Here is the input.
Amino acid sequence: MEPIELFSAQICPFAHRCRLALMEKQLQFDLIEIDLHNKPSWYFKIHPDGAVPALRQGNFILRESLVINEFIEELVGSPALLPASVHQRAEARLWIDVAGTQFVPLFYRLLKAKDPSQKKSLVNAMHTLLGMFEDQLIKDQSGPFWFGPMLTLTDIAIYPWFERWPVLEHYCNLKIPAERAALLNWIEVMQARPTVREGSQSAKFYIAEYAEYVAS
Here is the structure.
C-alpha cells in the first residue's frame, strides 16, 4: 500500500474525524499539521480552499471528511467501521447525515447567536437532537455505541463535536442534561479509547481557540 498523508489541524473537528478513522483502522499515516492562521502556499495545491482535512496517497488526493472516511473504510476490510447488515449500514449513513445536516450546523449557529430569543430556539433544537441521540443509544442494549458493541463511522462522525462541547458550555451555558445518561456514557466510553486519548485536547484549549470565532 502506498503511504498515506493526512493534512490536519488540531482545532478542526472535521480533520479529527479522519484521524480517528485512520487510527481505528490501524493504518499507518503521516500526519501533517496545517496552521489555519498561516496556511503554507504549497498547501493550496493540495486543497484549493486551504481547508482541512485532505488525504493524499501517491498522486491521489481526496477532500471532505466523510468521503475520506468512507475511502479509509474501504482500504482495508478489518477492523470494520460499518455494520455487517446492509440495513444497519444504511442507518449508520443516515445518522452521519443527521450529524452533517442538523447537529454540526446547529453547534455553530449556537456559538454565533446574539439575539436571546434566537438562542433560546436554538437551545431547544439542540435538546431535541440530544434526545434523538439518547433514544438511539438506548435502542440497543448490547453496547455503548450507536450500533451496540461496535464502534462505527457514525460514532466517529459525531464525537469530535462532543469533545468540543465545553465550548458550548462556556459561551452558551449549554450543558448536557444528566438524564441523558446513555449519551453521557457514550462520551465517556469514546474518551477512554486509545485512539481518542492520543489526540485529545483540553477544554481550555478549545475555549481559547473558539474565542475569535464566537466574537466575530
